[in-house]
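Reagents: none. Just compute today. Phosphoribosylamine--glycine ligase.
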Amino acid sequence: MKVLVIGSGAREHAIVRSLVADQAVDAVVAAPGNPGIDTIALCEPLADATDAGAVLEVAQRHRVDLVVIGPEAPLVAGVADVLRDSGFDVFGPSAKAARLEGSKAFAKEVMSAAEVPTGLAHLCTTVNEVAESIDAFGAPYVIKDDGLAAGKGVVVTDDRDAALAHAEACLAKEDGQVVVEEFLDGPEVSLFVLSDGVTVVPLTPAQDFKRVGDDDAGPNTGGMGAYSPLGWAPDGLADDLVARVAQPTIDEMGRRGTPFVGVLFIGLAMTSRGPRVIEFNARFGDPETQVVLARLLTPLGGLLKAAATRRLDEYDTLRWSDDHAVTVVVASHNYPGTPRTGDPISGTGDVEGVPTAYVLHAGTALDESGTLVSAGGRVLSVVATGADLAEARERVYAAVDLIGLEGSHHRTDIALKASRDEIAVS
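Predicted 3D structure written out:
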């Protein structure tokens, strides 16, 4: 089987890494990929991942057996539809199904129809409507851009003026809308579920860290780290969420004539009233994918092919390593603002000296002299596993310390509270 992976981030590097390890996969092509992916797979230039014609040309030229679409933008743009119409098996939802991520309001509508437990929400199109809604809900205020925002469209704040300012910026966009939600308390969980449009297969839960600084200080980012498994989570959480959230959602999408094929990313809060869905995404999350795939023993290629061809019912259970996995994101200067790029990166090869540790590339490039340099906000994801979270943390931070990138920053507390058994579910 030859697989084409669309995307250029650490999530795609993790996917390619797992596909290469699958004995049923003969070759992996990535478009556009990145310098890290290029060391283990063939990278093809791709100027715009939302250009369905360009993606189709790569798939046809390489005669691939499966296309895996990593980022959300090409999914919402309908790239999967064009590929399917041309006869390719695709892991990734249609444009209509990807609206579960492309529109927060649509996702809430589907949750309501499927009776999925979630927070109360108001869709607003004016600042006055936002003001009325946040005053009704009270602080902390939760303001979400209705459309795609690369993981940075959400503001949670006690500052009313800051909430209104974020709403105003979102509304200023073309067809701008915002969703104002009630604040959901409790620790957050990320759960990926694979779907072939009918059958749902859960992966193992993970937890990510959205804020830029230690102790959840500073603005939201695309994610600064993650870990798995969640020792503090209730037994049977994944199965419970399939029954209460994932299967009803997939059934509702099928009822609407827009079956969801791919991975449904469920972000939820373990509140005092039970699990409540915060959001849906229509693709693997980043950086959670890095730790989930680090522990998956079931070959990934066959699993994704089964989802793309409505054969997930062949998978009763998946096999998982008993190890714990932690990933830490090394970010460039000024991220999540306008990041500085072009700074040389050193030490990635030295990470191999740390047991179980490895580096996944995200915002990297090679300059004219062939030197590895930063090319984005989140530059690298460093991953390590261990017998417990403490050992995985020790290894991953030992590896991070070997990375040289001027002005870079990372969180030092990824999985710290969990390793100390300091997380409790009400």
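Residues 19 and 300 are 6 Å apart (CA to CA).
Action item: order primers for follow-up constructs.
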